[in-house]
Each structure stands twice: as C-alpha cells, then as structure tokens.
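Note to self: keep these together.
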Amino acid sequence: MRISTQRHNTVARIALFTSSIFYTSAATAFTLPISSHNTNDVVGWQVITYSKAGDTPLKIAQRHSVSIQRLQALNPKVRHWQKQRIYLPYQVILPQLIQQQKSKITVNLAEKRLYYFNAKSKVLSVYPVSIGREHWRTPTPTKTTYIIHKKQHPTWNVPASIQRYYRAQGKSLPKQVPPGPENPLGTRALYLGITGILIHGTNQPASIGTASSSGCIRLYTNDIEHLYKQAGVNTPVKLIYQPYKVGFNENVLYIEAHPVISDYDKNNQQRQIIIEKLQNMTNNSKQLQINWSLVDKAIDEAAGIPVPIGKLFY
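Structure:
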C-alpha cells in the first residue's frame, strides 16, 4: 500500500521515509491515506511537537492520540514536560492483515494498538488502546468477530464476575452504572460478537497503553468517538497477538518488537517464529543482508518502534 501525498488531518503532512521529521501542534487520531499500490510495510513519520505551559505526559498523550508509555519511551531525557520539544511515535510496521487489506479493524494486543482501515476512503487510523489485565479470568481473546451493536452514552451492566471481584476487596458496585463521568465505558461503545468484550471509551485515560481492563478494549474519548463515526454494525474485527513485526521501507528491512505478554505466549515462541521468518527471507533472497545482532538487540529492548535490521542490495 503506497502512502498518498495528500494532506489528511491537522498533522501537517504525510511522509514516506523514516528519516523525515515534521512538526505539529495538535492531532486527533494517527491517520494515513493509503492506496492499494503501496509497497512499503513501514508507514508514518517522525513528528516533533512542543508542549505547553501546564502540560503533563497524560495531556500530551491524549492530545496526540498516543499512550503515555510510548511517549515516555521515545522521550527518555524529558523530565519537565512543559514547553519542551517532544517526539511523537507516529511510525509503525503494519500488521500483516492490514498490509493485505483483509480486515477493517485489527487490534494487535501485543502492541496495544487498534487499526481501522476504511476501504472506501483508503484511510488508515491508528489508536492506542488498553486491553485485559494479565492473569485475569477473562483476558482479551485472540479471535475473529464483528460489531453487532453500537451505543452512544451506554449504560454499564456490571458483570457478576466483576461484582464478586470487588466484593472480595471489600468494595461494592451497583448492578448498573448510568451514562456519565463515573461510567467506565465512556461516551461510546461498540459491542462485539464475543460475550462481555466491547470496544469502548474510558473514564481512566491514564490506563490507555496498559493491560488493565477486565477484557474490553478501551480508547481515549476523542478516539472512540472518531472510530464510532466510521465503523458500522457488521464491521469485521480481528483480535491478534503479534509482538514482533517485520517489514520493508523501500529497500531497508525493519523490525518492531513489543514486550511479551505471558498470557498469550508463556514460552516466548513468537521469538523463534520471527527468527525463522527472517531466516527464510534470507534463504529466499541472496540480495537481503540481515544484521542478527541488531535483531537480538531490538527484540530484547522491545521498544515498540521500527528499527532497521537489514537491507536489500540490488
């Protein structure tokens, strides 16, 4: 999918090359115009913004639709977040299903991102999400499903399992929580064909980018409202676990590695799978040279950003 050069939203321009840097003052979702002729798996660009007086990591993260964790990882030297130059993580390797344009919504649990591809407008939107907490009785599943129902300002019907969990901690919850600031579903909810699993907003924005829900997929308020307008009933949804992604930007090969979630991969078999995939790529192409020490370093660091590991020599 070749990236178009048209302007799409308030993030000034779209850049194809990894080295490109652009400046922005505000953004909603991370969005990219995509065409079916694109040959690059690495999309997006490096963006610089400037924080304001009174800013905090959460305010910046919400304003630019990124998680606090990824924002801090990309800006490790920033201690005082007011009036600072801030790098935004607006570059990703597309999950394979998006590369093939086979899914409308893809949630990669490993990277805690939701991808929505609008086939009509050829626009890809990328949102940070929160997923089910580790070792919880109802983790976010890996499954293919679809949106069965949409609701603005939903009422939260508290599951019995969550009521029991809070009772065990000496707390109580009502059977229903009406719409409003105390409702953990936020302002919008997309109900999936999996019992008890929703894509919804949140009243806990600091949780975005973490594994902290009871199985549902949370988005920032602005992001769920943006997605809600686009994704209709019967929109296909694919929930996947893919901690390691590889792809090309022109003739340079990149890897994007994320921390392993033991609920989905107790023995880290995904590491061996991606190593074998890379080995097969070199076996099938004598022009491809991979720096294996860079591969190991990227996987060990699991920084969640595309890192160059090889190159095609023509």
